[in-house]
Amino acid sequence: MKNLIKYILIVLVFTGMIACDTFEPIDENRLDFDDVSANPNLAEGILLNGYNNLLDQYSFTEAATDDAVNNILDNDIKRIAIGELSAQFNPIARWSRFENVFWVNRFLEIIDAREIQWSRDTLTNDMFYLRLKGEALALRGLHHFYALQAHAGVGTSGELLGIPYFTEFIEPDGNFNVPRLPFEASVQAIMADFDEALTLLPTDYGLSEVQVDEWYSNLEDFDYVKYKVVNDNFFDLRISGRIVKALKARLALFAASPSFLNNQDYYNMAANNAAEILNTIGGVAGLDPIGLEFYADDPNLESSEMLWRSSLGGNTSNYEERMFPPSVNGNGEINPTHNFVMAFPMQDGYPATEANGFDPQNPYANRDPRLEKYVVLNGASFGGGTINTGVGGGNDRLDSIPQQSTTTGYYLKKLLRPDVRINNDNTATGKIHVNVYFRYTELFLILAESANEIGGPDHQVGGITARDVIAAIRDRAGITQPDNYLASISTTDGMRELIRNERRIELSFEGHRFWDLRRWGLSLNETAKGYFFNGSNYVELPSVEERDYQPFATYMPIPNAETIKFPELEQNNGW
Q1: Over the chain, what is the mean pLDDT?
Q2: Cα(265)–Cα(271) distance, integer angstroms
Q3: For 218-277, what is the HEC assignment?
Q4: Which residues contact 7 (CB under 8 A, 6 or more apart)?
Q5: What's the Cα-to-Cα distance from 485 to each of 216, 232, 473, 480, rounded to whole Å?
Q6: pLDDT at residue 5, rounded to an integer
Q7: Is 526 buried (19+), middle (13-18) or exposed (0-12) by CB count in 10 A?
Q8: Residues 70-123: pLDDT tens digits?
Q9: How many CB atoms lie within 10 A of CB 262?
Q10: Terminus-to-terminus CA distance in the chain, angstroms?
Q11: Do 230 and 167 meet the contact criterion of CB atoms below 8 Å apart?
């Protein structure tokens, strides 16, 4: 961790370099930290480092679960799925998120000194101070949450532990040998940062004068014109009060889960924060009708499904080149499993079993419409071609080209732009992509899971029940109405199973399932299955890739290098 601090100090120096033909004399050709601290633009640049490493939907950790297989033999995610996960090798570790924490802590030192003038106008200057400090606190909490999710666990002492919580910038020669807090203390520390941020940030950017939050409108000599300079919708992609409340709901659900606190108070916190936001968009009526394919074309990228997203970038084709089937010039990297395909119910909403009308020889008929939206099935049209994964399928046929053709009988469709075209000469017609940090559908599912755990399928939180949420989600999906299967569920256990399955489908390939299996305490070693058309019949491939996690892998390891350097860091049990 000391190396992170040295890196930050080096960057702070070079951030202030002035263009010149020579580096001599050095004192006249670079800005030191005091100069950076006095310049509002450079100081804000320090804060913006807190926006680096935000987690979006493109992690593809599903290939380390029962939902997908990565067909590249030395892929890091594949390696941990088949038994190589250790304290020495963990490609999805997040201990490095403390680098972002230290950037933010350095900014907080600067802004709390109140020496920077953001504006000559006193009111405008005060409002900049409020908003920027709120951003910093919220980002500090968020990066601590990222680390907590990836490294919390039962330590060698048997205690459920969280992470160290850093609220100050530490110099390279400072003390980094800090013990982990108990798990709940870590959660409370993050919540404290979020709660303070909520007293400083606008609920949304670009609010009308009558909507302005009271901590701004109650300022002496408040002026709405000046307020807009600070909090206009120009800043829409920055973290806001609405986003912080959503992050509180996510954190509370994580903390409440069976592998951690299994606690009703945190389920209540998750449900109440989610409901508060969702009721501002009309409750379940606000579920975006095109939210299923928020990534699919340019208009969808501007849909109301995205609670927090990045800016719209240029035209790219990187993900499509990785994921498209080989016949349309892709590398077919991520292959959904038959396990995942069978999670999709029948068109009428009942589970896909033969008793409910599932036909193993016509496996995709009368199925949930989301299936063909998220998975390239045998015989589907996609990417400018027809994809056949069975006998006669050419390069798309199962196992036709090592490390390129599907290993399961399926290719990934979700998250990809179907209008991207990859040409034979290695050029491509790219399309706009957007990184999504939080979707409203996730927030609806947080409310559903929490409300059900509090009081069952029909327990209301903010006037919304788990049944209301799941009904709206399945109706949007195209499940035949009335949804008699949903109506038949009357118990907490039954609704829990359905909510978990809906979450598996709706949030698929967005980086959730790897962590959901762990917080729910479910099996990590479900063997990945495939499905293959042999020219006459479909046959199940019962063991495409075995999962090999240790019994203690519910809780991920602290990096070995950190526990060696800092003996106060207690390792999670088993690692």
Answers
A1: 94
A2: 10
A3: CCCCCCHHHHHHHHCHHHCCCCCHHHHHHHHHHHHHHHHCCCCCCCHHHHHHHHHHHHHH
A4: 99
A5: 49, 46, 14, 10
A6: 52
A7: middle
A8: 999 999 999 999 999 999 999 999 999 999 999 999 999 999 988 899 999 999
A9: 13
A10: 20
A11: no
> pLDDT value at position 23?
36
User: How many C-alpha atoms does 351 have within 13 Å on its Cβ side?
Assistant: 11
Give the phi and the psi of residue 514 in degrees, each rounded to 5. Answer: -55, -40
Q: What is the distance between the alpha carbons of residues 123 and 503, in angstroms, rounded to a whole number?
A: 45
Residue with tokens 């890196």: 7
Are residues 528 and 544 in contact, defined by beta-carbon separation less than 8 angstroms? yes
Map 486-550 to HEC letters: HHHCCCHHHHHHHHHHHHHHHCCCCCCHHHHHHHHCCCCCCCEEEEEECCCCEEEEEEEECCCCC
Among positive and negative, which fits the CA dihedral 101, 107, 109, 111? Answer: negative
Structure-token match 């993900």, residue found: 319
Burial class (CB within 10 angstroms; exposed 0-12, middle 13-18, buried 19+) of 24: exposed
- Hey, is 306 helix, strand or coil? strand
**The model's pTM:** 0.94
Query: Cβ(169)–Cβ(207) under 8 Å?
Result: no
Joined together, the tokens standing for residue 340 give: 């995942």
Rounded CA separation 445/377 (Å): 27
* Spatial CB neighbours of 221, under 8 Å, sequence gap ≥ 6: 123
Q: Residue 354, class by beta-carbon neighbours within 10 Å (0-12 exposed, 13-18 middle, 19+ buried)?
A: exposed
CA-based torsion, 452, 454, 459, 461: positive or negative: negative
159: its two tokens? 């205690």
- Which DSSP state fits 81? I
d(CA 257, CA 262): 5
Q: Which token pair is 446?
A: 């947080």
Q: How far is CA 66 from CA 341, 349, 352, in A?
A: 11, 22, 17
CB proximity list for 543: less than 8 A, separation 6 or greater: 527, 528, 529
CA distance 108 to 137: 8
- The predicted model gives 200-227 an average pLDDT of 98
Q: How far is CA 391 from CA 325, 383, 405, 413, in A?
A: 15, 20, 13, 21
Spatial separation of the C-alpha atoms in residues 532 and 390, rounded to whole Å: 6
Can you tell me whether residue 201 is helix, strand or coil? coil
Confidence of residue 16 (pLDDT cuts 50, 70, 90): very low
